[in-house]
Fold this sequence. Notes:
Elements: E1 5-8, E2 11-14, E3 19-22, E4 25-26, H1 31-42, E5 48-49, H2 50-57, E6 61-62, H3 65-79, E7 89-92, E8 96-99, E9 105-107, H4 127-135, H5 145-158, H6 160-167, H7 173-183, H8 201-248, H9 257-287, H10 292-323, H11 333-350, E10 359-360, H12 364-387, H13 393-403, H14 412-417, H15 425-447
Helix pairs in contact: 1-3, 4-5, 5-6, 5-7, 7-8, 8-9, 8-15, 9-10, 9-11, 10-11, 11-12, 12-15
Amino acid sequence: MPTPRFRVGPFLLSPAHRTLRRAGADVPLIPRYFDLLVLLVVNRHRVVTRQEIFDRAWADVVVSDGALSQAIRTIRRSLGDDPRDPRFIRTVSRHGYQFVGANVTEETDDGPLPALAGSSVSEIVRTDALIDCLLRRPPFENATDEERHDAAEELHALGTAEALRRLDGEPGHAEARAILRDARWNVPGAGDVALLTSPEPWASVLAVVRLRFRRAARQASNRWGAASLGGTAAGIVAGLAGGLALWLVPESQARANVIAALAVVGAIAGAVGAAGVGAGLAAAEAVARSARLTALAVCGAAGGALSGALAHALTTAVLAGMFGRDLDHIGGWLEGLVLGGAAGLGYALSTAPLPGGGLAGPRGAARVRASFLTGVACAVAAVLLTMADRHLVASSLDVMASAFEGSDVGLAPIARLLGEEALHPLTRTLVGAFEGLLFGAGLAFGLTHRPRHR
């Protein structure tokens, strides 16, 4: 049965036409906020839990709890509602929200909407007051971040260009411009807010970065932790597979304990690599909206390079300090940079852009697809690295094994199965592709974990 059209007081809510009108005039709401309002109205006879709202209105992305609070504030403002004396939306503490508008009537929603009367939604406050609130000028010196964000949304509705003209040159305009840029995603038809053409371009850019990092710090940290666990799991799988292969190959002298040993090595390598790359990807996705693909590739590469350099430094220091062996031919910053950049590129291309903000949160088959494609991107990068005679984890272990007589982790027995006497191009390519596939897939699978909301 199709969703009906709803009338409550001066408002008309049409799910079929995706329109909210008040006294014959359109009330702009971004699609996600519109979907949330429809969800509340349809289920007005009960409280809709926060988890249900996240699962329904934010089904394709992961956002912080603050995103829901912002959505409710915006809807309330559009309806002219007061949270202290709600006429439309009631907050049920630590549980959810309920639409409590009186005398809601339903009608079929398959016909045309009434013609617009040409009027506009009444302004809640004057433009001067909104500018003063955004700049924290008297009497708004103590305006909260939420109040300033709401003021920015109102200014977008009144005209982005005029708001920018009024702000430029005023004390604190760089931070105000950053809030305007962040708020434009929540206002349909909002104009662009350029940063590099502002009076203080780099101050504006830094203000945007600070704003988004501050608002997304907890969300990004959770994302980073899940990505690290995904990389750790992938490393364990790779280590177990390598250990089993060495143990079962007829020509190998490896004992069964090599399985556990390589699983531990794989877990450490996967955790270190995913920690760096995952941190870069989580930070990039939390901060960058307009240039998401570029930011993910660059930050993934930077995080990977840092992890690779750290792993190389620690490994060579241990080998030199404890065993007196100086081995430079093991993976390092370049391998991390290439794999991290490939992971960021694959992840960006396999997950949908998010103009409304939030972190990608594909589910089910979409999540598996994103993980696989990210893994494929890393596998391609790994093959290119092996062709350039660079070393990933397995080939680095083979280099170390050759330096220690009697080591069981050399990959020559596996190479001989493929017709090579040692770790030559074919074996290195196949092993590297396997490593890259598992690393990228595990990283992306962890990165897209959806936390439960309370």
